[in-house]
Amino acid sequence: MATIQSKDNKTIFFNYFKSLSQTPHRLRKRMLATWTPDQELNQVRLRSGADMKRKLKWYDLVALGVGGMLGVGVFVTTGPVARNHSGPSVFISYIIAGISALLSSLCYTEFSVQIPVAGGAFSYLRVTFGEFVGYFAGANILMEYVLSNAAVARSFTEYLCSAFGISDPNSWRVEVPGLLQGYNKLDFSAVALVLILTFCLCHSTKESSILNLIMTAFHIVFFGFIIIMGFCNGSVENLVKPTGLTPNGIRGVLDGAAIVYFSYIGYDSVSTLAEEIQNPPVTLPVGIIGSVFIVSGLYCLMALALCVMVPYNQIAEKASYSMAFQRIGWKWAGNIVGAGASLGIVASLLVAMLGQARYLCVIGRARLVPSWLSKVHPSTGTPLNATLFLGLCTASIALFTDLDIVIEIISIGTLLVFYLVANALIYRKYVLTSKNPPFPTLSFLFLITSCAIGFSISWKLEQQWWGLPLFGGIIMVVTAFFQYTVPCLGPPSEWSVPFMPWPAAVSIFLNVFLMTTLKMLSFQRFAIWGLLITLFYVLYGVHSTFEAEETGMKMAVNEVPNPSIQLTKLEV
């Protein structure tokens, strides 16, 4: 037996090294390979074995979107951004980030209606720009989800401490002297929360949705309490004390907008539930766009309430709202805020973990990661293996890593994916659907991105103000010229973004601009992550998909005389 096993191992290694020698050929064949929406909906989905169960309605989606965003945004980022970047004008940062999120959500909505599968941005980009772009975006989405969920789980500990009247959240963490700073405070309550939610999500999506609906309803009532009490007991003078509404100028407001974009992670989770909802063409637009509108309004009111209660330079960076109520002498209210914030964080974590498992499940269907991650349990209708795997990853990071270390790399990954989705929507509508030549559309996308980068560089080089009207004007002229000269044809869609290409073009500009406001360290960490996932694709992903698709093509040829299922390539 040992001899046979040794021979099998040698055969596996031999075949793998033989595959590596064919890497250039396989990269040429697979990097730009795409699937049609019909293949994505039928042929690829069958690889999960059982189907996910369609039990969710429009109000489930709105509640999941609202619940997924609320706990993250207000209770994790508002305090640090107000104190260190935007000052009392943090609500303006939320408005700017909200506009960008709304435009991105419009792009997501059109894609999700046309391709109602659980893969979200991964599937949208794979059918438009090919396998590698879809994989790169999908890997970044998973990174964003796992890191943000770990960060949110750790913030749960801080607010739970506040609910019990404990001012130092580290008192519930175990400090290990031998570990690096930022990784040396072990958070076992965060790990426990992640594991409990993981097992809930393995059981049923509908029951998880009902739990979220209940928590979100209580959470909105609780938000109303904070907003009303904040405005009643605060002072408008705090908005201009001690150094005005924008102590760090418009630059601080925009820097803050890039960071609070972290708050809008959640609405894209709604698009990953497309295989589990009833009547997707109606339910998806209501769920995605409705949740973004509701959350944007609540964010602005909550940010204002915090800043009228306490001058921005006295806002605590940890458990900001609880500490604000304690500063005005309402210690009991601070405890209530801690309990309510903990509930909101649980709801947001539930939704985010729901979305991350579905992304990984669909990436597994594409064979870019091991196929066992794509399996759907026949009884529960949930992606069991993906849920368990990512739950363990999230718990491991939540055990060690502080929020400050991950928050900006989360923002850059999110902005990049939203940027790619906006580009993909324009290319799909004007090239793949309208059958126009690709060169005018690709030139337009290149010019928009280049001008957005030029505008951003001018903004950073404070003395080069002439670049702002120049590049801004070029973007407007180029977009108007493209709209006038390149027709948007094709069959009517059940739902489409109005006034195209303007919303997608503005989304591209805002995502590029907000990315450039992040620190260089964020780009360095992101570059390392990008290198690692590219290596994984070259060493594993491309070979796995090549062999899976080649086998599928041979089977199709054997079964059907004139096979109609063929891989297409992005025309360039």
From TrEMBL:
Species for this entry: Gossypium klotzschianum
Q: Which InterPro entries match?
A: AA/rel_permease1 (IPR002293), CAT_C (IPR029485)
Source domain of life is Eukaryota
- GO molecular function terms listed in the Swiss-Prot or TrEMBL record: amino acid transmembrane transporter activity
Q: Which residues cross the membrane?
A: 58-79, 91-111, 123-143, 186-203, 210-231, 288-312, 332-354, 382-400, 405-427, 439-459, 466-484, 496-514, 526-546
Q: Where is the organism placed in the taxonomic lineage, from the top? A: Eukaryota, Viridiplantae, Streptophyta, Embryophyta, Tracheophyta
Q: Name one GO cellular component term.
A: plasma membrane
Q: Which residues form the Cationic amino acid transporter C-terminal domain?
A: 495-544
Q: Which Pfam families does the record associate with it?
A: AA_permease_2, AA_permease_C
| Compartments in which it is found | Membrane
Q: Which family does it belong to?
A: Belongs to the amino acid-polyamine-organocation (APC) superfamily. Cationic amino acid transporter (CAT) (TC 2.A.3.3) family.
Give the protein's recorded name: Cationic amino acid transporter C-terminal domain-containing protein
Q: How does it sit in the membrane?
A: Multi-pass membrane protein
